[in-house]
Amino acid sequence: MKDFTGKYYRRAVIDLPNRQWPNKHIDRPPIWCSVDLRDGNQALAVPMSVDEKIRLYKTLLKIGFKEIEVGFPAASETEFNFLRRLVDDGLVPDDVTVQVLTQARQHLIKKTFESLRGCKTAIVHLYNSTSPLQRKVTFNKSAKEIIEIAKDGVKLVRDMAAEAEQNGTKIRLEYSPESFSDTELEFALEICEEVKSIWKPTPDNKMIVNLPETVQYNPPNVYADQIEWISTHISQRDCVEISLHSHNDRGTGVASTELGIMAGADRVEGTLFGNGERTGNVDIVTVALNMHAEGVESGLDFSDLPAIRKVYEECTKMQVPPRHPYAGDLVFTAFSGSHQDAIKKGMDLRKRQHISRWEVPYLMIDPTDIGCSYEAIIRINSQSGKGGVAYVLADKYGLDLPKAMHQEVGDFINSDADKEGKELSPEEIYKLFKAEFVDKTSPLRLVSYSVSTYGPEDSREVKIIAKLLKNGEEIEISAVGNGPVNAFVNALEKAGLKDFKLVDYCSHAIGSGSATNSAAYICLESRVDGHRVWGVGLNSNIEHAALDALVCAYNRLR
Q1: pLDDT (average), residues 534-552
Q2: What pLDDT, in 10s, does the model give residues 341-350?
Q3: How many C-beta atoms lie closer than 10 Å to residue 355's C-beta?
Q4: Within a 13 Å sphere around the CA of 238, how many CA atoms are in the beta-carbon half?
Q5: Distance in angstroms (rounded) separating the CA atoms of residues 263 and 257
């Protein structure tokens, strides 16, 4: 890059030598306010229709938001009519407060109050820009003149709120010194104090002081310093709610919000999946589920996150990226072999020991907590390892491959993925596995067999008579052994097929109940060069499955 010395500069250095927020922890949820229908909507290339806004609004209610910014009703008839429909159709529950935004301008404030007619409770969110840059470039006004704009605005809101209350609508005030994060702290405090002195909040009727990170000029630790400074310097702290509203220009909206809560904020404004101007707002889903991952109840219900995402994408026409925290298609997916192996071991241990604490490597939370399944956790491409293939076969098809078999199966499947240059679906993996490790029928094929036992109980022997196709020609073999598999091996040796030895055998049921299938796994070693191969048999009869596995392994040894 070119030398940009002097073009850019550090905007804020906060003198806070005894900062407390680094030692704090988030141990309870903030008050959540969704701004999807206003801040999120205004950022869309094609804003939502009224019906789409209604659908998303109802989803926000299901999630559990009790404060929802529904629009800027003085900005357009669409925004105005949307709020009127919510009120007139009785779509605002008694425990939910709608929030509306307005600039500190007389005609906009009056239009805003007109839209609120009939609301039980509402938050009027009043704002004006306060930063030196905005004062100079946008308004060409002094700091004193900017304060007068805020004062005139809140006086009108106060007077109209008193009138609205006589008509049954209780109004709360939210004031934002817009571009707070780029405003001198002393000036931001001064203007908030002036607004507060006019509104006169009480502990039972708090005023919301919203401190927006309108543009992320500073790192998140600086924003936290700013929040702590205001929170500890503002008068009548018990009469105000400190609110956060982070954008994401630096990609640190979540960090700014989390540190801001640690710094003393009571309330968070944001959107689902971070939709908003420029690089977006803070993603409330991520902040809330980060709390969930630390054992802190967020108060929001994301137990069916895929359904919420579907509504969001259909209403906004935006797409959640595949790597988006918690909600993306690939966030619970491991392609790396070492990751897959660790996840499989963690899942197996939880199941085996009935562990309640969530401790699975590489997975912050249990995907089922948010309506996702385990199926997508491990997916297979050329980078995948043996554990991943084994996990898919076990999770999807109930095949608990012996540990010693993982490498051979993994190498075979991954080689095909590499050759195809793509990810393999579970169905494709199973098809390849079955063709190579189950369905090998040449040069030998088991046609039929019978087993009989004889001798005293403590030394009983098994005799097997089997019909085989060898290179298409039917042969009959027989022998005695201590079990069906041993007898079958002896019969093959008697028939001249002596170039192998059986080195491993195991089996298990697939599923449960009367229709249970069985899987058998047999490993043979070549007496010629010592290499080993596995074969698998699948049959409702465990004995038959074992013989099929032996035949398959023999065929793979050729």
Answers
A1: 95
A2: 888 889 889 9
A3: 12
A4: 3
A5: 10
Query: Within this chain, do residues 156 and 289 fall inside the same structural domain, yes or no?
Result: yes
Residue 482 within any structural domain of the chain: yes
How many C-alpha atoms does 235 have within 13 Å on its Cβ side?
10
285-341, pLDDT tens digit by residue? 999 999 999 999 999 999 999 999 999 999 999 999 999 999 998 888 877 778 878
pLDDT interval class at 384 (50, 70, 90): low
> What confidence category does residue 552 fall into, taking pLDDT thresholds of 50, 70 and 90?
very high
Token pair, residue 406, equals 């993982």
Same domain, 394 and 537: no
10 falls within a domain: no
Place of tokens 């170039």: 499
Q: What is the CATH number of the domain that holds 458?
A: 3.30.160.270
User: What single DSSP character describes residue 206?
Assistant: P
Q: Which domain holds residue 398?
A: 337-437
- Whether residues 502 and 473 share a domain: the answer is yes
**Domain end (from 419, 437, 455):** 437
Closest CA to 67 of 118, 125, 19, 112: 125
Asked if residue 289 and residue 151 are part of one domain, the reply reads yes
Residue 278 and residue 248 share a domain: yes
Question: What is the model's pTM?
Answer: 0.76
Of the three residues 421, 437, 453, the one that is the final residue of a domain is: 437
Cis before residue 402, ω within 30 degrees of 0? no
**How far apart, in Å, do the first and last CA atoms of the chain sit?**
61
Instruction: Convert the pLDDT of each residue in 3-19 to its tens digit.
Output: 888 888 888 889 999 99
Tokens of 520: 């058998």
- The residue to which tokens 């991952």 are assigned: 293
Q: Which residues pair with 123 in a beta bridge?
A: 99, 172
- Provide mean pLDDT across the span 502-513: 86
Number of structural domains the chain divides into? 3
Q: What angle do CA 32, 318, 287 make, to 5 degrees?
A: 30
Q: Are residues 426 and 457 in the same domain?
A: no
Q: Which of 518, 506, 510, 556 is nearest to 534 (CA)?
A: 556
Q: Is residue 33 part of a domain?
A: yes
Strands 67-71 and 97-103: parallel
Report how far residue 235's alpha carbon sits from residue 322's, in angstroms, rounded to the nearest whole number: 45
The answer to the question of residue 12 being in a domain is no
Q: Is the pLDDT score of 74 beyond 80?
A: yes
Band of pLDDT at residue 190, cut at 50, 70 and 90 = very high
